[in-house]
Amino acid sequence: METVYTQGIWMAELLQSETRNYESFWLLATHMGDPKAAFLLIFPTVFYVHRRTAIAILWVAAVSEWLNLVFKWVLFGERPYWWIGQSGLYVKNSPSIQQFQSTCETGPGSPSGHAMVTAAVWWVVVSALASFLHSSFGSKILTAMPYIFYTLLLGAVGLSRVFILAHFPHQVIAGILTGVALGVFLNRTVPDRRPLLFFLCSSMALLFGALLMHAGLKIVGIDLTWSVALAKRWCSKSEWVRMDTNPFSSLSRDAGALLGLGLAQFWKPGGWALPWVSKTLCMALSSMALYHVSRFPLPTVPALLFYSLFFLKYVIVPQVVMVLIPGLVHLLTAKPKKD
């Protein structure tokens, strides 16, 4: 693997030197590929356009990110920003590269979670859009446009992860291929209008399944905190190492979102029938609300409290988008019935 890693460092160095003027674009691409964007940005935007697709997005995002966590625990995988120091190969000839605030993720590197979740989630979006364009216009060119966008998006997200030294190229490719496969498969198993018990069981299965796996690996002598220690040691700035990039944060987000999805459908099955103007207002209000939810600071000590509150934060997300905001808008805009 040493040859693969050294070639990856060379590619990252070349990409940084040749595209330094596009740094803002690469940072935007990596933020758009962040798994949390699927929950906080893509899901609420799509929900007011097409309910079933939005539920599919939340379902696919949660399951694919959880599987990515499992794969990382099994496959390990170095990250470029710490491998450079750990390898000892660059003591005398250090590569001319730069770290960024988004570089210092604490989980293992293989496969890329950004690439994997982006590929899975956006497959749901583009396949639904392509199907709509084909049925509405019957044009092969229009139908192909979403898939062209999809390819360019995956390329941008993947290269951005190499650019900021978060992943090696082979980890990005593995993430994309796995994500596409998951997107195609999971999009056929969307739990729309399933009972609350299904989502409760699914949430607990993700949560306790990962915890049991973590405990089992620890018993056989595999220390899954090794990557956190390396991140703290080799990150350029200590404040760039954040708890919300920890694997247990991803686990809390996924389990919380599925439970929240079940609760939202339980409180108001089918939702409200709103006109397009009201839906546009809902979209704007939901974006504002989720922005504040995502920015709300959580205590990082003790760790269990942080993860519990992080779990609750993502339980709230579907409630805001599917129940609270539409209910409020419906209450304010509904015309009174005549006697």
Polypeptide structure, described:
The chain is an all-alpha fold and 339 residues long. The protein contains 13 helices and no strands. It has helices at residues 2-18, 23-32, 35-47, 51-75, 80-87, 113-137, 140-163, 169-186, 196-219, 226-234, 247-267, 276-295, 303-333. Helix 2 (23-32) crosses helix 7 and helix 12 runs antiparallel to helix 13. The chain has one domain. The active site is at residues 114, 167. GO terms for molecular function: glucose-6-phosphatase activity. Its EC number is 3.1.3.9. It is a multi-pass membrane protein.
Taking the sheet with the most strands, its summary is: none
Query: Helix/strand/pairing class, anyone?
Result: mainly alpha
Quaternary class: single chain
Strand composition percent? under 5%
Order of helices and strands: HHHHHHHHHHHHH
Uncertain residue segments: none
Question: How many strands?
Answer: 0
Q: Distance N terminus to C terminus?
A: 76 Å
Mean pLDDT: 93
Give the % helix: over 70%
Cα gyration radius (Å): 21 Å
**Gross geometry:** globular
Q: Counting H and I runs of at least 4 residues, what is the number of helices?
A: 13
- Count the domains: 1
